[in-house]
Amino acid sequence: MKHHATDTHTLAAPYALGALDDAERADFEAHLQRCEACRLEAAEFQETTARLASAVSQTPPPGAKAQVLAAIEGVRQLPPRIPAPGQAPALGGLLRRRAVPLALAACVAAAALGGVAVWQTLSSQDLRQEARQAQQQLAAVSAVLAAPDARAVHGRAANGALTTVVSSDQQDKAVFTAAGLPAPGAGKTYQLWLDHDGTMVPAGFIDDSGSVLLTGNPADAGAVGLTLEPAGGSPRPTTDPLLLMTLTA
């Protein structure tokens, strides 16, 4: 598939997620040799994708492997779906673009749940509810990360946590990711803020390493803040910020 020169700059996220075909990947890698901005953006997306997967990873519950193996013989196998001749070229671009959020969802879901088969075969209602919530979060996170105008900034909180904010004006959303975030302690929670011309507006909570979709409108925000607040949060920061990360324009 051929792209106009202006389209090439939008392929950093699909490249980082492995959603380009061989020809597109080769063309984009050649473009990276002469475009410093795209090299930086692709590296940031690769780092952020790795953090998202790492931050939500969980050990499968005991007995999950045995249950999956026991259920395999009862799973009906479907024949492969082969597109009609002449259909593949027309669908190529659509499938590649749809593969961007799907690739991220597959990456993080595999780490978080140990694969779709585990979710399908485990009967625990609690696990199913957690899986639905994880899928909703993944859909929201992947939409931001895969947006053509997505941009990432990185920082380090005063408590040592590594942080990333990926924002998109088109989606009008931003995602906050933290790795190595210490436990907040009894009766405490980490609260996120959007800085609007010096006014700190509540933007959600994060209690441990992971990723959250910021609440509120990030479009006019100049920075993202992180403070340690009493459980339940505060209308205004009550402690010095652990992080105040300037967002790129």
The string of secondary-structure elements, in order, is HHHHHHHHEEEEEEEE
- End-to-end Cα distance, whole Å, is 31 Å
Regions with little confidence, pLDDT below 50 for 5+ residues: 1-6, 87-103, 105-123
Helicity, in percent? 40-55%
Please indicate the count of domains. Answer: 2
Radius of gyration, in angstroms, nearest whole number: 20 Å
Net shape: flat
Mean pLDDT: 75
Share of residues in strands:
15-25%
- Strand pairing plus helix content: what structural class? alpha+beta
Q: For the largest sheet, list the strands in their spatial order.
A: 1-2-3-6
Biggest sheet character: 4 strands, antiparallel
Task: Count helical runs.
Answer: 8
Tell me the number of strands: 8
Descriptive report:
The longest helix is centred in the middle third of the chain and has 26 residues, at 88-113. This protein has helices at residues 5-8, 12-16, 22-32, 36-55, 64-72, 88-113, 116-121, 125-145; strands at residues 151-156, 162-168, 173-179, 188-196, 199-205, 210-213, 223-230, 243-246. 41% of the residues lie in helices and 21% in strands. The chain folds into 2 domains: 5-71 and 86-145, no CATH class; 151-246, no CATH class. The chain is α+β, with helices and mostly antiparallel strands and 249 residues long. The model is unreliable at 1-6, 87-103 and 105-123 (pLDDT under 50).
Summarize the structure.
It is built from 8 helices and 8 strands; from the N terminus they run H-H-H-H-H-H-H-H-E-E-E-E-E-E-E-E. The chain has 249 residues and is of the alpha+beta class. Strand 4 and strand 5 (199-205) form a beta hairpin.
